[in-house]
Automatic annotation (TrEMBL):
Pfam families: DUF402. This is DUF402 domain-containing protein. Residues 56-169 form the DUF402 domain. It comes from Saccharothrix espanaensis (strain ATCC 51144 / DSM 44229 / JCM 9112 / NBRC 15066 / NRRL 15764). The lineage of its organism: Bacteria, Bacillati, Actinomycetota, Actinomycetes, Pseudonocardiales. Gene3D superfamilies: FomD-like.
Amino acid sequence: MGFFAPGDVALRREVLHGRPWAVTPTRVVEDGPDLLAVFTVPGTRFGFPPHPVPHHWRELGRERWNGHGKLQLHRPGDAYSVDLYWQGDADDRRFAGWYLNLQDPFRRTPLGFDTLDHELDYWVPVGGGWTDRDREEFEAQVAQGKYTAEQGDAIRRTGKEIEAMLDAGTTWWDPAWSEFAPDPGWPVPALPAGWEDYPQP
């Protein structure tokens, strides 16, 4: 599959137990052999295909992305993305920090890429230091069968690798991404017609 061009819409699809679980249309910022960067535009509507396991955002009534949007950096083979967040109002948009979102390594598809969130995350605020997030929820989901025992062990290993990287200060991403601003001409992307029938993985 070829690379996407800046501004293209790429569907980020979460796949749980072999079936699409949640779909988010994103705008491509950069795409190449070493990095895929996509942006979730504020107001973007999520898609929740029929699934035996209801998505928690759907149950909470969370249908759209709010706030300043989210930039996600993906390296091929990494079992996490590096997500950037901003805070403040529209006239005072400030970088807040880096959020390391553990997930399946992304897999390219004709319309975007597939992954699955692993619940366990790490927050690296702009002021320094780091904290892990949602560890209890992750362990509960392993016990409930969302992830197998083997997957749980692999996710924990990824977490340890991230902790070692953060402690050593050997992060790989360019700090200049914190200055990113989305193209003001980008409209909010929509789910394409027939997205529910998007081919199964």
